[in-house]
Amino acid sequence: MKAGQDDSLLRNGLAVHDRSHAPASWRIALPHSAAAVPVARALVRTALTELEHTADGDTAELLTAELVANAVEHTAGGSPIELVVELLPTGCQVEVHDPDPAPPGDLTRPGVEPPDPWQEHGRGLLLIRALSSSCGHRPTGSGKAVWFRLPAVPAQRRPSA
């Protein structure tokens, strides 16, 4: 090998070694239908297996399902929804992008009245606020992104399978 090739392989080897410290991310377009929810849950479950100290997978799947279901229910059906999962050494962040620029109601602060326990809807944002370490929304060029973060759970505290 030439010296330049050797140096390139060394840099690539170091980059692979250092990947554990850099965030990994997944991005997928989802259909604007209820079928998006199980696909999103499966992607989050798969992504979380990539971390040595992962966030709680059950909580991540539940909150992802809530965000995707809200995007399907509360936005116009012409555009796909996008799911972004970012894994960090300290946990994970999940974002759902949708075409509606209006912020989600009561995501970052509780509503005036608690959700009616007899109603089928109205608890998703409450779950996201209660179970995530942080959550929010931000405008994007094509609508908004609604997100939550979960901290990493040390291996000895994870439920066994």
Give a description of the structure:
With 161 residues, this protein is α+β, with helices and mostly antiparallel strands. 34% of the residues lie in helices and 24% in strands. The chain contains 4 helices and 5 strands. The protein has helices at residues 3-18, 36-48, 57-74, 124-131, and strands spanning 24-30, 81-88, 91-98, 134-140, 143-151. Strands 1-2-3-5-4 form a 5-stranded antiparallel beta sheet. Strand 2 and strand 3 (91-98) form a beta hairpin. Helix 2 (36-48) runs antiparallel to helix 3 and helix 3 (57-74) runs antiparallel to helix 4 (124-131). The longest helix is centred in the middle third of the chain and has 18 residues, at 57-74. The termini are far apart. Mean pLDDT is 78; it is low at 1-20.
Concise overview:
Helix content is 34%, strand content 24%. It has helices at 3-18, 36-48, 57-74, 124-131, and strands at residues 24-30, 81-88, 91-98, 134-140, 143-151.
